Amino acid sequence: MEAARPPQRRRRPRRGTVDKPVNGRLVRVSGVVVAPALLALLFSVSTPGTLPRPAIDPLFDATSAATIAGQLSTDFPGRVPGTEDAVAAARWYDQTVAAAGIRTETHSWREELPDLGEVELQNVVAVVPGRSAETVVVVAHRDNTGADGRFGDNASGTAALVELARGFGLRGGPTPAAVPQRTLVFVSTDAGAYGGAGAAHFARTSPYAEQALAVVVLDGIGGGGRPRIAFASDTPASPSRALVSTARARVADEAGVAPTLPSPVSQLVGLGVPLAIGEQGRFLDRGIAAITLTTTEPGEPRLPVGDPDAPLSAARLGQLGRAAEAVVTSVDESVGAAFRTPDSVFFGDRVASGWALRLTLVVLVAPFAVGVADLLARARRRGLAFRPAVRALRARLLLWAYGAILLWIGAVAGVLPTGADLPLPPYSESVLDHSGVGVAFLLVAFVAGWLVARRPLAAAGAVPSVEVRLSGHAVALTWLGMVAVSAAVAKPYALVFLLPSLYAWLWLPLQTRLAPAAGLYLVGLAGPALLLVALGVDLGLGPVDTLVYLAGLVTVGYVSIPAVLLAVAWLASASQLAALAFGRYAAYAGGVEPPPPGLVRGSVGAIARKVRERRYASAT
Q: Mind spelling out the 3-state secondary structure of 296-343?
């Protein structure tokens, strides 16, 4: 009688097999390359220098500035660009500053703005000559969104601009020794509440901007909130460390409290997807160091002067006015200072270098790339069929490209905004009062396209084999790796939003049950979720309005086409991996070779046949 065999333990799947296709040990070992980048990031953190405090105390008159702010809001309550009040307010600023003996210039041009169409805009520039052609620029927008508008009023900033111009003009008048070292330029811009069109025009066309050493923007400085320094940019750039540090010190001296800075997370999001509502972004985009002094928190409405819910704080206006004067004087008196605009992340009184951050983000892609390369090599050695998976990915890529085209169709139809390639005001009608019918039509058109694209992708009833699913994973993850490498080359900070999807979705081929696979997939969406939440908080918008706002940034051209292409490519891999994670994946056309013609190829073939038939009929 044969002896009973001892029970055998179930053998664990070997790494690199179909049952365990991802070599986790290889991924973990390759993660060693991240350590040097992290050390470089750690050693790049430094304390920026601060320019010396001016020898002369600021002379800013808070009472006079508060009177000017009240006069502007009372005499010209609705300063919407292109209206009579806007033109009268520009004339008022010109006459008020010129009365102090300061030379002024008015620059007019026409531009298309959201909600307003094409209007005539005016910048009024006041100049206090200095010993050098280099300039220090102070900017405040003069316009608002109307007498009843809850956003955009900047009477306090304009009043401070007038008071600063007067003060510096009197300094440099009778006493030659008091003439500033640099030329001081005080710019009252138009359309600051509509994307900063005036600041963009000045930065792009003015010779004073070409010689600018630094720019200080005053926006809503008469509120009762805590002082804040904003420095978001239209490009991955940051203001000079010395400028931020000096402004922080001067505000703390005058207000008795250190101003707040954007959080590190907000700064990373801003570097990954640059978006600057404030006018300083137009200057940073041109490589000019610029900051904004304000008392308004991101997403918080700024009520007009005189509104009982938001009375003007003369004390805060005086504090930030004196701080702005001290910053301008410190920059003016600096010797041999260079205010560059390297990308950086500020942590209170410390700052991390952008090159180290970018290096760290790029190196973090390496372990994922090694794991995917190993997965793809082993899948090829096993002879897996990749063509059906590639065709499935191509169909999803074309679907999302169709969705991007629908955005431009919506812009042509007037559903989404068009205009200058400037950031949309988050309070614009095209965002808050968008056409629900138009948006619904675009969604229906996209769903119709999805139904057409889904036909060859739908499962035929049979559960796909392990090999079919593995080829789908391998192709989607390889494409995701290509997207990550492209982002690392073109937009390194965009990896902040891609890295969660890389390392969560890399392990999807190991999951055979729905719950773990779905959980991993949702974790991979943390990057886009961070973007939407951060933008919604900064802009004060809900989820739907935030999505409409992002679509509007695309249609006005503020978001570049390469960024849109990267998003479309990522969505293609994300949708294929979603089908795999939730058990809805099938090989394209059931893996049939060659696959039957789809809608486009079938339509082209039918048209070609009709043309041939007509030619044959006419010939006979």
A: CCCCCCCCCCCCCCCCCCHHHHHHHHHHHHHHHHHHHHCCCCCCCCCC
